[in-house]
Amino acid sequence: SQKIEQNSEALNIQEGKTATLTCNYTNYSPAYLQWYRQDPGRGPVFLLLIRENEKEKRKERLKVTFDTTLKQSLFHITASQPADSATYLCALPGAAAGNKLTFGGGTRVLVKP
Amino acid sequence: GAVVSQHPSRVICKSGTSVKIECRSLDFQATTMFWYRQFPKQSLMLMATSNEGSKATYEQGVEKDKFLINHASLTLSTLTVTSAHPEDSSFYICSARPPGGAYEQFFGPGTRLTVL
Q1: Among A20, A87, A96, B95, which one has the highest count of C-beta atoms within 10 angstroms of its own C-beta?
Q2: pLDDT, tens digit (0-9, with 9 covering 90-100), for B9-42
Q3: Which residues have CB under 8 Å from B92's CB, separation 6+?
Q4: Interface subset of B 70-109, CB within 8 angstroms of A
C-alpha cells in the first residue's frame, strides 16, 4: 500500500540556520507533491507544489526538491526565524481519481532565537 | 487567496447528542470539499469527499450514518456527527479546491469537538 513517511521527531534549529525536512514515499508514482504548514489548533496552509518533472521549486526562503527516483522530497527553510516554528506536512494525491490528498505524519520544527 | 471558514471553532457536547459543523468557501465556489479528522500529534486522515448536489464519498472505515455530510450549495458543506461519543472527540478540518484546475487545497481553521 502507499506510504508517506516524515521524520516524526521534532527538529530543533537555531535562528538563521537552514532547516531540512524529508518526505519519503513508497508504492507510488505521484504526478506532484505538496507541502503545507500547520500551526497548533489550526488548519494546514498550502506552501508549495512541485510536479514530477520539476527538480526544484522556490518560494521566498523555502525550497523544495523532488527526486522521483529516490521517491523523496526535501523541504528547506533557509535563514530560519522563530516565526517558522510549526509542523510541516507533505501531501501526495491519491492514486485513484479525484485528487484526494494523503498526508504524511508531519515534522515539527522549532526555531530557537 | 481562497478563504475557507468553519463554524463552530469549538464545541463541547454530551454523549449521545448530534453536532453539526459548517464549512464555507467564502470567495470561490467549490464543487468538491473534503472532510478530515486529526487526533493529537497525528496527521490528517481523510474522512470523506463532499460533492455538491450528490452523495458524499466516504473513505474505508468511516461510517456514513455516523458522519452525515451534506453539500447543499457551491459554498457550503456540513458534517453532522450523530449520536456523538467520547471517541468522536477530535479536530475536524474541511478543505476545498478552487475551480480552474488548481491542485492545492485551502483548509478551514478546524473545529475542536469534545464529547463528554
Answers
A1: B95
A2: 999 999 999 999 999 999 989 888 999 999 988 8
A3: B21, B35, B36, B37, B38, B79, B81, B110, B111, B113
A4: 91, 93, 95, 97, 103-109
